[in-house]
Hints:
Elements: E1 8-15, E2 21-24, E3 30-31, H1 43-56, E4 61-72, E5 75-78, H2 81-88
Amino acid sequence: MAKTKGTHFVISAAHTSTGAPAYLKADGAWSSDLADAHALPSKEEARALVAKADLEQQRVVCDPYFFPVRFEASAIDPLSARESIRAKGPSVPIRRPD
C-alpha cells in the first residue's frame, strides 16, 4: 500500500530546558510523546498556533514549526524521516561504556 499525502499538521518545537522534542497538545501544553500531539486539519491553523507559541511560550519551547502527518491505524505517522527519528529516537544503537 502506497503512502498517502499528509492530511493534518502537528506543531513541534524543542523544550528550552532540555532540547528534547516537544509536541503541542490540544490543551495548549507540550508533550515529549508524538502520540499526545494535536493534529490540525489546515496549514492556516498550524501557522497561527506556531506564531502564538513563538510569542507566548519562549520559556517553555523554542523554534516551533509544523510538519505534515497522516493517520496510520489511528496513530500519528510523520511523513518525513527527520520527524520520525525525532519522535522515535536514534535510528542506530548507541554504545555506552557503562
